[in-house]
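Blinded run. Sample ID left blank on purpose so nobody reads anything into the name before looking at the predicted structure. Input follows.
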Amino acid sequence: MAIAFLAFIGIMFFPFLGLLGIAGSYFLMFAVPIMTIRWWVRLHSLRADDREFRRARTTVIVISVLCSLPLLNSAARFL
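Blinded prediction complete.
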């Protein structure tokens, strides 16, 4: 979903597809953090030595940090 978010941002710059890019990026702006939280709630206590699971956990951590930056920026404006 996070990679699709980047694709929708790129689509915004093409004529006639801009509305699709805007709608998709706004949807994913809310969907990615919700799905990240859902992933953490379901799988945070799972211990696995699988290399793919460790990579998925790292990806979720990176996406969580990147999604929290706009929220922190918005919170800083209100202070």
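Unblinding after everyone has recorded impressions. The chain has a mean pLDDT of 80.
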